Each structure stands twice: as structure tokens, then as C-alpha cells.
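Hi C.,

You asked whether I'd gotten around to modeling the 192-residue construct. I have! Everything is below, sequence then structure, no commentary in between.
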Amino acid sequence: MTNDTITIVSGLPRSGTSMMMKMLAAGGLEPLTDNIRTADEDNPRGYFEFERVKQIEQDNTWLEYARSRVVKLISALLKHLPPSYQYKVVFMKRAMSEILASQRQMLIRRGEPADKVPDDKMAAMFNKHVAQVEAWLAEQPNIDVLYVNYNEVLKDPRSHAEQINSFLGGSLAVTDMIEVVDKALYRQQHSA
């Protein structure tokens, strides 16, 4: 991986992106974060977010600071990545029933309505969105993607950490990555 490459952790909300950010940080990849969104009951180990990414469509100058680092970017914003950089995207996937349950629980904790859209409609929208993002990513010559399943990482952290390390150039501390995988935080378990 060159010093100009930007590593991005992406996926749907509640798909394991914060866990992956923590793994990569533990492995030695410096995260681009601002610590504005702090740890809470939904993410007790932190969110690893950088607020400026939300404005990527209007302002992408922050990408210069992301070179040789890792930044979290939700899947809906990937299409705004400028072609002037090389990217390595670690795209998190998770059982849809768990994503929906995790989002519902987060909304309930925040006192927001959790039943605005029925699960089957939300799942259909999310699945369509992910299919569109995957098709777009496949067409980008400056983006390499590794799809990582959150559920599978929890079952076998070592093989996934080794695969991620290989994808990102082989210089990460795999043992340190494995040590931050906390199965106690796997709270929305559902059969797929």
C-alpha cells in the first residue's frame, strides 16, 4: 500500500464499522477521527468517526489528511469519493435482521420512533442500496474492496484479521487486531 492510499471502512449503519475501525487502529493504522461523537451504550468502545465526512459532496479537502490513514464513511457517501486518490475499502456486511434490531434498539434508547418503516421494507431498501453500491464499486479503477462479514469475524477473528492485513499490505499487527474483537458486544444476535 502506498502512502497516498486512503483506507476506508464502510457499510450500512450498525454493520460493524466501529469494530473494524478499532481493529485497524489496534493493528497500527492511524484512524482519522475527531472524537466529537463519543462512546455510548450503543458503541461502548467508541464510534471512530470524523464529522467532516458527512459533507464530502460539498467539501472533500479533508481527504488529504486521510492519506496513509483509515477513515469511516457510510456506504451512501462512497459515490462522492473523488477519483484523484487510490482507496482500499473494507466494506462491512452483517445479517440484515441484526442490523435492523441494532438500529431499532439505538432509536429506542434515543427516545426516537423505532417503527416508522416496517422491517421488511427497510431490509428491501438496504439490500437494494448495497447492491447498487457494490455495482458502483466494481466499476471504479481506483478502488479496491474487501467485503468482510461482521458475523464471521466474531466466529473466527484470526483468519479475517489475516485476510484484512494481507489486503492492506501486510504490515498490521494481526494479534493486536484480534484482541479487540469483543464478543460481549455482540448483542443483537439473530439467525439470518
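If it helps when you're writing up: Residues 119-138 form the longest helix (20 residues).

Thanks,
B.
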